Amino acid sequence: VFTTINFKPNELAQLIMKEVYLEDAGIYKLRLKNKYGKVSITCTVSVCQRERSTDQRKTNVEDLLRK
Question: Is 5 left (phi over 0), alpha (psi -120 to 50) or beta?
């Protein structure tokens, strides 16, 4: 999984997962610590399977037949 965490002072932290699977769903915890103290937060990440539309399937089949 290609995961990056973007964090800028005084802004939100952002978790980016470029490739996810259903089993990646769950509770994630972010812990930050510096000389002033520490903080942590948890969030629940849901992964939903995306359904392909009929139009997308037709286009893909048509592309294969042209080759």
Answer: beta
Contact 41, 33 (CB under 8 A): no
Q: DSSP string spanning the chain? A: --EEEE--TTS--EEEESS--GGG-EEEEEEEEETTEEEEEEEEE---PPPPPHHHHHHHHHHHHH-
Reported as a single tens digit per residue, the pLDDT across 12-61 is: 777 788 888 899 899 988 888 889 999 898 989 888 887 766 555 555 65
At 30, the amino acid letter reads L
Q: Which amino acid is at 19?
A: E
The backbone torsions φ and ψ at residue 5, rounded to the nearest 5 degrees and listed phi first, read -120, 120
